[in-house]
Write a structure and sequence with these properties.
It is built from 14 helices and 17 strands. The chain has about 425 residues and is of the alpha/beta class. It folds into two domains: about 130 residues, Alpha-Beta Complex (Aspartate Aminotransferase, domain 1), CATH 3.90.1150.10; about 260 residues, Aspartate Aminotransferase, domain 2 (3-Layer(aba) Sandwich), CATH 3.40.640. Strands 4-12-11-10-7-5-6 form a seven-stranded mixed beta sheet, with helices on both faces. A four-stranded mixed beta sheet has the order 1-2-3-15. A hairpin with a 2-residue loop joins strand 16 and strand 17. Helix 3 packs antiparallel against helix 11, helix 4 crosses helix 11 and helix 12 runs parallel beside helix 14. The longest helix is centred in the C-terminal third of the chain and has 22 residues.
């Protein structure tokens, strides 16, 4: 089928995520057929620079030879086997690797970022039930938080646009801002006997519009969690695997969470795989005789899928072999300088927010007022950027740049040019 026929079939049958399907075709969707490095190729043969890492997952680029090979080699052995009552080689090796990287020795696999947070919330809740602190049932999270789309992860989320519709389905959560640790300590002092855990995206809130936390805030939060015995749950789904310039965002401030959630870049963008990593303290609370029913009764059919785990291992090996974090510093510097210049020159840039290669450019009218939600100005800017063959994605009035860590200097300059020209247009 040609592009027109495929689009018609898509419009007839496919319900896309986070998409208003009325007017879907008018939004000029692309149909991707293949990929090459940091580029996607559509059904008309046009090449597009993947400036959002295919929703923040692609790490070393598309069709990376080593990742292709790992997938094919594992396929010759076994594609899937359950972890219920069995084990498999790649899931064991990957768990050991993740434990070494994070300092969290216990790894529970799942399939998505949302699920990894859901699991962390359930683990934290059950931990306190098993250790006799049964009043510790509530969770704390940030205003404008986003932790996924399952009911538990939506509950700890705080974005009205995404979550308000489901309010009656959700459990109540204590909500705080990042302006003051004093506010958090006041809450902890008053209610620590009720608080099971604090869920947080470390350093930068991605889906909220790349909102930055001030230096030292995360470390201060860790100290308060230790002081008042509240489990610290770090959601590294978006920030993990090099996005902020270190393998994990918590490394910037030497923070050691009780539970950490990882997904997205875990397989380099190849297959859905997530993990919830736990401290030994949390893990040991679940150990006991069979008749004590301390088991963590949670699972997923594809938990620890061998194909996904094999690719994830190859992905992590590439970080070491290619010195990915060191190499990306040059591109990071080019983007930082270019975005600073764009902000100086354009009155349409309200603010640039960046940590490593996680970037949000908030746009505004030239008189400094904000665009209305219905104007879709962020989307219109991204549509203009396509004229330069660059794919970006908006979060309201924030234009997101989150390229693969394998981005070249020339590709970085192309992204900057595309964004600048799109803002002018």
């Amino acid at each position: 089928m040609n592009t027109t026929e495929l689009l018609a079939l898509d419009a007839k049958h496919v319900w896309h995520p986070f998409t208003q399907m009325q007017g879907w075709i008018e939004d000029q969707p692309l149909i991707i057929e293949r990929s090459e490095g940091n580029w996607l190729v559509d059904t008309d043969g046009k090449r597009w620079l993947d400036g959002i890492s295919s929703l923040w997952v692609t790490v070393h680029g598309h069709r990376k030879a080593e990742l292709d090979a790992a997938l094919k080699q594992q396929l010759d052995k076994v594609a899937h086997c359950t972890l219920l009552g069995q084990a498999n080689v790649p899931s064991i090796e990957l768990a050991a690797k993740l434990a070494a990287l994070t300092g969290l020795p216990r790894v529970f696999y799942s399939d998505s970022g949302s699920t990894s947070v859901e699991i962390a919330v359930k683990m934290a809740y059950q931990f306190w039930q098993l250790t006799g602190r049964t009043t510790k049932k509530r969770f704390v999270a940030l205003k404008e938080a986003y932790h996924g789309d399952t009911i538990g992860s939506v509950s700890v989320g705080g974005m009205d646009l995404f979550h308000e519709r489901f309010r009656d389905l959700l459990f109540p959560v204590e909500r705080v801002g990042v302006d003051s640790l004093a506010e958090i300590e006041e809450l902890f002092a008053a209610k620590h006997d009720e608080l099971a855990g604090f869920v947080v995206e470390p350093l930068i809130q991605g889906a909220a519009g790349m909102l930055l936390q001030r230096p030292g805030w995360l470390k201060g939060l860790e100290a308060l969690c230790r002081k008042y015995d509240v489990l610290l749950i770090c959601d590294e789904v978006a920030t993990g695997f090099g996005r902020t310039g270190k393998m994990f965002a918590v490394e910037h401030e030497g923070v050691k969470p009780d539970l950490m959630c990882v997904a997205k870049g875990l397989t380099g963008g190849y297959l859905p795989l997530a993990a919830t990593l736990a401290s030994e303290r949390v893990y040991r609370a679940f150990l006991g005789r069979f008749d004590e029913a301390k088991t963590f009764f949670h699972g997923h059919t594809y938990t620890g899928n061998p194909l996904a785990c094999a690719v994830a291992l190859a992905n992590l090996e590439l970080f070491e072999r290619e010195q990915t974090l060191e190499k990306m510093k040059q591109v990071e510097a080019v983007l930082a300088e270019g975005l600073a210049e764009l902000a100086r020159k354009s009155k349409r840039v309200r603010e640039v927010r960046r940590r490593g290669l996680m970037i949000g450019v908030e746009i505004q009218r030239e008189d400094g007022t904000a665009y209305e939600f219905g104007e879709r100005m962020g989307f219109r800017v991204c549509l203009e950027a396509r004229k330069h063959g660059v794919l970006l994605r908006p979060l309201g009035n924030v234009v997101v740049l989150m390229p693969p860590l394998s981005l070249t200097v020339d590709e970085a300059k192309l992204m900057l040019h595309a964004l600048g020209d799109a803002l002018t247009r």
